[in-house]
Design goal:
Layout lengths: L2 H29 L2 H31 L5 H6 L6 H6 L5 H26 L4 H21 L24 H16 L1 H13 L3 H33 L10 H26 L3 H24 L15 H21 L16 H33 L7 H21 L10 H24 L5 H32 L3 H11 L1 H23 L4 E7 L4 E4 L2 E13 L2 E12 L2 E5 L2 E4 L7 E3 L1 E3 L4 E9 L6 E9 L1 H19 L12 H4 L3 H16 L1
Helix pairs in contact: 1-2, 1-6, 2-5, 2-6, 5-6, 5-7, 6-8, 7-9, 8-9, 8-11, 9-10, 9-19, 10-11, 10-13, 11-12, 13-14, 14-16, 15-16, 16-17, 16-18, 16-21, 17-18, 18-19
Length: about 675
Amino acid sequence: MTMPLLGRYALLLAGLSALYTVGMGWWANHHHNQRLQETVRGAAVAIAVSLTAAVLVLEYLLVTGDYSVIAVFNHSDRALPLLYKMGALWGGDSGSVLFWGWILSIYIAFVAWRGWPREGQMTPMVVPLLGAVLLFYTGMSNFVVDPFRLVAGSPTNGNGLDPLLQNLVMTIHPPVMYTGLIGMAVPAAYILSALWTRVPSREWVPVVRRWMLVAWLFLSVAIVLGGMWAYMELGWGGYWEWDPVENAALLPWLLATAFLHSIQLEEKRGMFRWWTAFLGVGSFLMTLIATYITRSGVLKNSVHSFTGTGVGPYFVVLFWFSLVGSAVVFILRRDTLRDRMAMDSTFSKEGIYLLLNAFFAAIAAVVLFGTFYPIISKAFLGTSVVLTVHFFNAMTAPMFLALVLLLGTAPVVGWRSAKWQSVIKRLWKPWVLGLAVGIFAYVHGYHSVLEFFGVVIVAFSLGSMIQEFYRAARLKHIATKASWLKSLGSAVMGNRRRYGGYLAHISFLIIVLGVIGSHTNNLTITRVMSPGQTVSVRGYQIRYQGLRATTHPGYQMTEANMVVNQNGHTYTETPGLSFYPGSAQPVATVAIRSGVMRDLYMVLEGSPGHNQAIVEIFINPMVSWIWMGMYILAFATLIAIGAPIGGDSAPARSWEFGNNAAETRRRLVTAEGRDHA
């Protein structure tokens, strides 16, 4: 048996297992047949095993260079390094659809194997729901974009991978993105299952929250990694340009982030139940819209190379089936979505969360409208109009700053109602910090209204979050007499959900500071330089030494030798242009010297001759803060995910603080009183 044939058999087995999971799963649930439900559980695991085999077979074909297979011929060649040969798995439609289905099969196998005993009432329905989505993916792989289809003849080499994708970050970015996007099917399936089976919210909310956190973590990291790739590879000095593909990833992230805040209202107060469930399912539906945007080519104004492929319309069909099915569940189970309580006061944590949700939804609506505006304008105006970066920035920046302001205010506002005097007493120090940082920033060039107030608001919210960690460490320090560092760690681990969330907010604020800083006091110059010529720019002395040509496996490269002197330190950077066979345009190799406060970013644009070089030099402030925020965000989310499903143990236990429990309680009450005063 040949390897391509083995891969096809594995795909066929996966498709049959998915069909059994859906059909027999619904039958077993309808008739409450536990024996058949167990077979469905096994079929879900069989899908994962089959698709894993198919993925391994395709990876083997890519690594060994079997160019008779279409997925290998289109996206690999002999000169491609091993790492990129492996990454070519998701370089096109056929491999991507297989990879998407494989990720979802891992999710469904975990749910069937581990979740079944814990969530016995929901999981027997969750598995068929996810199986229906998997039936779509396996059907696509078997009948539409078969990755094991053979090409005519016996080719000895392939077309190669797009040069822009031959980047370490781009090798990591797609699987992380797919894991996040596809993962949002799991909380959506749990929500629909819980509504249909009338499971109380106290049982499904913790489960759904954790699954959404997992998907949200991967998607958050993937969005920043996408910006990192654009910054490193495209050579335009930026990391985000509101490209349709960038917007496609942002849209489900916005709804999922709103959901993670809204679900606290469901959990604490039983409020906004319909809206919370809608956000959870809507996040998944938005991933289908995102896939349509990236894979249909309907929006021509994208710089990403994988637009314009043929699978987009199929995702439209899946979207409408999912939308109609979800709407039926919401309508038939609308009685379970009635709120238990009404809002007592708009000035309360409930009111803050409601505003947060409103702004997240508004930003998502603006991004969705702006992304599809070329199609809308074509339909109504007769001409396709592409909205620029200025539209998106002008519309979303004020709303993002409003979100930041609410994040800084929310920790000190109580449930049900809050007193202005108490809130002001707890927030005056963060506001003083924000104004002080704002004045410092104004002196250093942050002169526009948006930049100045942006820094003030972000610094205020950072101060508010840091104050919460200080209060927690102080209370623990007073109670236990342990060191401050140990007290802080104990407080965080004692309530991982709360302080993991606060740390995630801090990481988001660091990213926002990086975004504001990178658009302030940045500088771009272009010079035609002769050998020996020096350019002085903001403390950098950059001397051009000349061009040199180098040969690499699969491509030729022209490099500019640039000697940089910065504060007495001398180093060499080599921006270049790579020329690939069959590629009309050279690919820029960007030279980046990253620093905490600014990056030196150089791009070789070309040469007019005589060993001269056209060099574009960027001074980009604070971009590294965005990458730093991503790492903190990942760490913070892992802390929050690690909280027990039942919730962290909030009450203090005597064995945590020593034997004198009464004295401990007295010290805690006294400390709390001082903090509120």
